[in-house]
Amino acid sequence: FTGIGLSEAKARETLRNGALSALLRRAVLQARSTLGPALDKATGTLLYNTAARLKDPKHLGFLVGYIARREILTDLQLSAALEYVRSHPLEPLDVADFERACGVGVCITPEQIEEAVEAVISKHRAELLAERYHFNMGLLMGEARNQLRWADGKTIKNEVDLQVLHLLGPKTEADLEKKPKVAKARLAPAEKQKVAVVENGDMGAETQSLLEQLRGEALKFHKPGENYKTEGYVVTPNTMALLKQHLAITGGQVRTRFPPEPNGILHIGHAKAINFNFGYAKANGGVCFLRYDDTNPEKEEEKYFTAIREMVEWLGYQPYAVTHASDYFDQLYTWALELIRRGQAYICHQKVEEIKGHNPPPSPWRDRPVEESLLLFEDMRKGKFGEGEATLRMKLVMEDGKMDPVAYRVKFTPHHRTGDKWCIYPTYDYTHCLCDSIEHITHSLCTKEFQARRSSYFWLCNALDVYCPVQWEYGRLNLLYTVVSKRKIIRLVETGAVRDWDDPRLFTLTALRRRGFPPEAINNFCARVGVTVAQATMEPHLLEACAREVLNEQAPRAMAVLEPLKVTITNFPAPKALEILVPNFPADESRGFHKVPFHQTVYIEETDFREEADKGYKRLAPGQPVGLRHTGYIITVQNVIKDVSGRVIELEVTCTKSDVAEKPKAFIHWVSVPLACEVRLYERLFLHKNPEDPVEVPGGFLSDLSPDSLHVVHNALVDSSVHSARPFDKFQFERLGYFSVDPDSEQGKMVFNRTVTLKEDPGKA
Q1: What is the domain-level CATH number for residue 21?
Q2: Confidence (pLDDT) at 231
Q3: Residue 366 annotated in active site
Q4: I need a surface site. Which of 274, 492, 535, 572 has the fewest CB within 10 A?
Q5: How confident is the model at residue 26, as a pLDDT?
Q6: Beta partners for 288?
Q7: Segment 143-171, tens digit of pLDDT
Q8: Is 479 a residue whose pLDDT tops 50?
Q9: With contact defined as beta carbons under 8 Å apart, do 150 and 76 qualify?
Q10: Residue 639 carries which DSSP code?
Q11: In sequence order, what are the beta bridge partners of 752?
């Protein structure tokens, strides 16, 4: 290896990579058979780059032959050659087309280079004379290279330098000075994409929106129809013909799918999957299917189908089509028969317990005759086997070592769509890739735990000679202080710890909607997490921060009092209630006003009054007046009325116009002629960050429930401006937080859920 120009350190590093060193040795021996024992460094570098960058070793001899015959002389040519063989996976290669694509036999003369550089300099002559050596010379190089693709870059650079010197003369002192930086125009706030990166729970620098990130991901993913360029993709003699048919059907359109199981409610982790699948399609001009993976009739309910679609649309996405795995049951069954006929599947009678885990005993029925398996599969379909007595298994070993995954099992449960037509149902491992194939999905995006199934995905499509999409994996999104598994949420509901799947203390999407989280906040949160391959585990306060940003712009202001204290204004300036105009958004009064009554009797928060004002206390106290927000009046305590236990139950005050009184230390919110309402204040459901961790919570997640996760205020008061609000309408109650109207609201008794406080609690960060 040092004999072809590698340094000793590089040679030793290469030897540590067994596969690379074997390829390089083959390449060197082949080149020596043509060129003799001594190879120059340029040839050695080409050989090394070929061995290191070649994806499919079967083309090694073909490429080394061109290097040894001096027909590939530059790294530029080699890069074109490597790309060509990657893009043309089927043998035999079209030699003439290959040579055209790699510039074989193309001879660029010094005269051609001189003419090309002369033309480029002539084009930019005026700018060159004006900017002199501060001009971007790389632009000249690039344009000359575009005209003469196979020309040597060093020769072009020397020619550019020579002709520029001839035009401008030697550099002067002014030319040697650094070019002053031009200040970039600052974007107006409205033009900025305020999306931050979150790494390990911290807010980082500003970054791109999710759509921009997903457009970036498109550079890493294959283009539609170029599936074979993906590492690990298996190419068969029929691959290129199938891809050609695929492109004829899709027109080269990106196609993704979101494939939830309809046996539970979507949670915050699904929000990332929805954003990724629908967002990737949208960012690249494609479409996304909503496909229900309804292959397990025992656990599926209509309410889950409805709720899943509702949540997808609530997040702002419209499926291109709504499909079901059960739409394809007939085709899947036909393909299962074909798989048996091809000797790739068999009927097995091992029990479920026997084939669980990673090292189960091999099936004694693996080599049973094809005809026997076909008859037994038909018996399975006719219901002649009980549940667990027979399965159809595929003959393959998965990436995680699991052998012969199950394709079909017996279940005597009517299906919600197909009724009792079937008593055998396909598994995820069998169904998923074939449904993707039927729908001509281009990018099958799934979470990282499915990476072990990628090889079986490719295997099954190829075993049946059908179009094979590409599976790409990304990292899951998890939240601390919660559980999201269906089984655990059902236990929470059954034990009465929460009311249902939409209890606002959960992080299901229906629960987040009920609590008042705007869909934009959830999408922004997914953007901040980013398009990561690694699993992301985030703090809930980061999601809450996204909600505050959106609600601050969306939620009109209102006033509410949670613990009312009656205040009578003894010198009220009018015989009846006044109407006060309150801005919906104080920072932008152009967004309108609402009216609230201001009467002789108002209610303030109990906590906004103290009989004795401590140092630093700025609100109402005897001898310490406060302003009533939006009224233009200041009130001063004249009399404190208490009940028999000594509790303050009413204040008598006088009011003064604020423009003639001394400015008070504080302004407080209030209500007058209010509506009675119930307010539900939520905190974290669990005490520990990881309630499912047996080390952190030895007693199990049900032992970790917080006793303070819900506080209901039954007799709160809210100003009458909200009287016509409907469920899920959102408000900022001044000084209290953001609140959403709960569906439990009735005529005469509204119910509000607190979404988030106005500011983050430092204790939660």
Answers
A1: 1.10.8.1290
A2: 80
A3: no
A4: 535
A5: 93
A6: 256
A7: 998 888 888 888 899 999 999 999 999 98
A8: yes
A9: yes
A10: E
A11: 679, 741
